[in-house]
Every structure is written in C-alpha cells, then in structure tokens.
Amino acid sequence: MEFGICTTIENAPAIKAAGWDYVEENVQGLLKGTTPDDGWDGKTRTNSAVLPIRAANSLVPGSIPIVGLKVDEAALKTYMAKVLKRASQLNIRRLVFGSGGARNVPEGFSRDEARKQILRFLRNSVDDAKANNVVLVAEPLNRGECNIINTVAEAMTYVKEIEHPNFQCLVDSYHFWLEDEPLANLKAAMPWIKHVHVADKDGRVAPGLSGKADYVPFLKVLKEAGYNECISFEGTAMKEFDVTAPQVLDYLKKAWANA
C-alpha cells in the first residue's frame, strides 16, 4: 500500500520528508494536453523528482467538452493522444477521469445522448491508454460538482459497458459520503477499484484532522477485497504542513491497520 498527496511535483521534497510515498499531479498543470510539444516542460520539471508520480487528475478541461452540442471528437482524440503519450513518458500509470466541467450535461440536453457521448469518448481513448500502459479511472463526483456519474454504482455501469482493462473505477471518500452511498456499492465495485482518494466530507479536510469522520469502515471494504494500490489525499491544503502531513499519514496507516 502506498499513500500520496495530490499536489505539484515541486512539493515532493516536503511530502517525502513527511513520510509519504508519491505525488498525484494534475493533468492540466503537468501533462498539458493543449500545449504543443515544443512548449511542454513536463520532462524538465520531473527530471530530478524525489518521489514518483503515481497518478494525475483533472483529465479533460471544461474547454474541451465531452458532452453537449459543442463536442469535437477529433479534438478530444488529439488531446487524449498527447496526454496519454506524455503520461507514459513520465511513467504515470493512472489518469483520473473526473473532469466535471467537460462531462457536465447542459441544461435541456438529453441525458441518454450525454451517456452515449461519454461512452464514445471512452471507447476512443481506451486502446490508446493500453498502448501507453495507462489506466483511466472513472471518478464519481457529487451532484454539487457535476450532474452525471455521481456514484460508484453509476460509474460502474460505464466500466461494465466499456469492458476494457484500461478503464476502471475510482472511489473518493469525499464524494462517496456526500452522496450517502452505501458501502454495499463499494463492495460490489471492488474488483474494478484501481485508485482511491480520501478526504472528509466536511470541508474536504485531510483524514484525522477534523475528528468528524471514521475511515475504518470505508477502508475495511478496501482491505477485505485485497486492495493494495494507491490512496491519495485530495482536498484542502494542510496548515503547518511539516506538522500535519505526518499526522495525517499516521492516522491513515493506523486506520488501515484497524480496518
């Protein structure tokens, strides 16, 4: 099991000093799929990184819609080809398909057509993902951030319809709890859960800092299913990082041990 923090690679020295295992970057900030190759600085920024980048989130920007009347499938394919190639070059093996702005269903637009558009986007991406040894993971987002793919159960309908080893599922405790989703849904999805985000539903603060969330039942589902991949904290910045980052990691490891 590895524990990481969603942040920029420039923060890796502080994260490593606090005992964490990896960084989860941001596709828009690091892989920059809209930037030409001669302007991309990803390799330069990561050459001397002291921690690996296990994943990157925010896969598609809202400026390149996946859903709606303004979808440009050719532009999406070009964008994804560039992102996947760069992820492979940096040895990033998980890309998180949250992308609420890109996949949000416009008011009055057919939800059935929106689903078909998302499925087309995924079908157009998975073989290229496989060629680059990258797994795309669907991230359910709460209804306050996006109006489609809001639960693990809903995300799994896409995973099962695509039925491809390079499209799997993510669970984020923040969204999971905000949607009041039952643990039974997570249990059913465990064979396809290939990445995890954690944060409290109150303020999206780091685990253990608010004392309001009990992670043990959530982690127990993962542990009992044999989950042994990455768990990333994604949320509001920790204050007094040199103190809180070790505390959060210690909390997570103890919660995992007690799960």
Quick description:
With 259 residues, the chain is of the alpha/beta class.
According to CATH, the fold-level topology is: TIM Barrel
Q: Which descriptor suits the 3D outline?
A: globular
**What is the rounded Rg?**
18 Å
Mean pLDDT across all residues, rounded? 98
Helix count, per DSSP?
11
Largest sheet: 8 strands, parallel, barrel
> CATH homologous superfamily, by name?
Divalent-metal-dependent TIM barrel enzymes
Spell the H/E element sequence.
EHEHHEHEHHEHEHHEHEH
Please report which band the strand proportion falls in: under 5%, 5-15%, 15-25%, 25-35%, 35-45% or over 45%: 15-25%
In helices, the fraction of residues equals: 40-55%
What is the count of β-strands? 8
Describe this structure in words.
With 259 residues, the protein is α/β, with parallel strands linked by helices. It has one domain: Alpha-Beta Barrel (TIM Barrel), CATH 3.20.20. The chain has helices at residues 12-17, 27-31, 42-46, 73-89, 100-103, 111-131, 152-162, 173-178, 183-189, 216-224, 241-258, and strands spanning 2-6, 22-26, 53-57, 94-97, 135-138, 167-172, 193-198, 230-233. Helix 4 packs parallel to helix 6. The radius of gyration is 18 Å and the shape is globular.
Ordered list of secondary-structure elements with their pairings:
Elements (H helix, E strand, L loop, with lengths): L1 E5 L5 H6 L4 E5 H5 L10 H5 L6 E5 L15 H17 L4 E4 L2 H4 L7 H21 L3 E4 L13 H11 L4 E6 H6 L4 H7 L3 E6 L17 H9 L5 E4 L7 H18 L1
Parallel strand pairs: 1-2, 1-8, 2-3, 3-4, 4-5, 5-6, 6-7, 7-8
